[in-house]
TrEMBL record:
Active-site residues (renumbered): D8, D10
Entry protein name: Beta-phosphoglucomutase
Provenance organism: Spongiivirga citrea
Keywords: Isomerase, Magnesium, Metal-binding
Pfam families named in the record: HAD_2 (PF13419)
This protein's encoding gene: pgmB
Species classification: Bacteria, Pseudomonadati, Bacteroidota, Flavobacteriia, Flavobacteriales
Site (Important for catalytic activity and assists the phosphoryl transfer reaction to Asp8 by balancing charge and orienting the reacting groups): S113, K144
Similarity comment: family membership: Belongs to the HAD-like hydrolase superfamily. CbbY/CbbZ/Gph/YieH family.
Length: 217
């Protein structure tokens, strides 16, 4: 049986979480409150709209729908300025090695990201060609922890959900993978990602032997 591999983008392939954080922090500061890196953990994997709702809760702010939409636009404009400057040097360690190995083994690969900016980011860092399909924030209506993004990825790869392996850095993303009955592999802090089936600090800690076991199913 063939196993499918689904990669989250932000925090797994590239560290754009730092850019999201900078943009949200600026927005919070402009509204008169602070936003810490610890609070940002809960924003990882969460859609743009849901993130702004969370931020306004943190700052205890109520705003009009019009202002809400305007803030979404200005946050994204600042974020786009950061990603405009990205190149392949921002790919996280050993990601190309893992993608290359999976390709060599003919394993189907999907992207499963909440971001609406996923394709331009993959283009910027020159990894787009590794992916058989891209599922991102433009394709789904329900944000992680809902499993929609990963189920759609499996469907587009034509692989049953139970035969898919998800790499994720966020709590919401691990929960989404688990709900989809996929194997969840956390990339990051094992204490934060304790709901994952396996956790590694980063891809340098994942051996080819372990990958081959996943490929074999
Ligand atoms: P955008 P992922 C997520 O990407 C980020 O982790 C999250 O912080 C962000 O709010 C979300 O994408 C939406 O991104 O504003 O670019 O549409 O981790 O699911 O790849
Ligand atoms: Mg992520």
């Amino acid at each position: 049986s063939t196993q499918g591999f689904i990669f989250d983008l932000d925090g797994v392939i590239v560290d754009t979480a730092k850019y999201h954080y900078l943009a949200w922090k600026n927005l919070a500061n402009n509204l008169g409150f602070d936003f810490t890196e610890e609070q940002n953990e809960l924003f990882k994997g969460v859609s743009r709209v849901e993130s702004l709702k969370l931020l306004l809760e943190i700052g205890d702010k109520t705003i009009s729908q019009e202002e809400f939409n305007q803030l979404l636009i200005s946050k994204n404009e600042e974020y786009l300025e950061y990603i405009e400057k990205m190149d392949a040097s921002e790919i996280l360690p050993d990601v190309p090695k893992v993608l290359m190995h999976l390709k060599d083994e003919k394993a189907p690969i999907a992207l499963g990201s909440a971001s609406k900016n996923a394709t331009p980011i993959l283009e910027k860092v020159q990894l787009l060609s590794y992916f058989d399909t891209i599922v991102d924030g433009n394709d789904v209506t329900k944000a992680k922890p809902d499993p929609e993004v990963f189920l759609l990825g499996a469907q587009q790869l034509n692989i049953p959900a139970e035969q898919c392996i998800v790499f994720e850095d966020s709590i919401a993303g691990i929960q989404a993978a688990n709900k989809a009955n996929m194997i969840s592999i956390g990339i990051g802090d094992a204490k934060v990602l304790h709901e994952a089936d396996h956790v590694f600090d980063d891809f340098t800690k994942i051996s080819i032997q372990f990958l081959n076991k996943l490929i074999a199913g």
